[in-house]
Every structure is written in C-alpha cells, then in structure tokens.
Specification:
The chain is mainly alpha-helical and 81 residues long. It has helices at 2-7, 11-42, 54-64, 69-80. It folds into two domains: 1-42; 46-81, no CATH class.
C-alpha cells in the first residue's frame, strides 16, 4: 500500500524535472552546434593565430578579380623589394 501511495500523484514533480532537464540539454547542444558552425565561417582559411602575408592578400585579390594582371605583377615587384 505504501508503494501505491508514492506513485499516486508524486510523479508529476519528477516528470517536470525531467522535461526541464531535456529542454536545457537540447538547448545547450543547439548552442554548441551553432557556435561551431559559425566559428568556421569567421576564421576563413587561415588559423586564428596566423596572419596573412601581403603577397597572399595580393594573390587573393587577383583571384577575386579585384586587380588585373598588370597591377598584380606590379604589386608583386613592389613587395619583393
């Protein structure tokens, strides 16, 4: 009879606790996944501690079409000095 009394009505508290636990757990997982996905976008192809060399910037600008071949060659010569 005592076991029946414990199960009669007292389970609601634990049910709410478990629902809150899973809600918080899934929210934390979602935040971590979003953070990881956004982290890859912000760091491009260079590591956090690496800095782009000037020649790398010139090559990237040429590849994007921001400068033409003559400008690229001139900048390479200027940077080699």
């Amino acid at each position: 009879m005592y076991g029946y009394q414990m199960m009669n009505g007292n389970d609601w508290g634990w049910g709410i606790v478990m629902m809150l636990f899973w809600f918080v757990f899934l929210a934390v997982v979602a935040v971590v996944v979003i953070h990881l996905l956004r982290g890859h976008d912000h760091h491009h192809h260079l590591g956090e501690s690496q800095k782009a060399e000037p020649i790398d910037i010139v090559k990237e600008r040429y590849a994007k079409g921001e400068i033409n071949k003559e400008q690229f060659e001139q900048l390479k010569k200027d940077l080699a000095k």
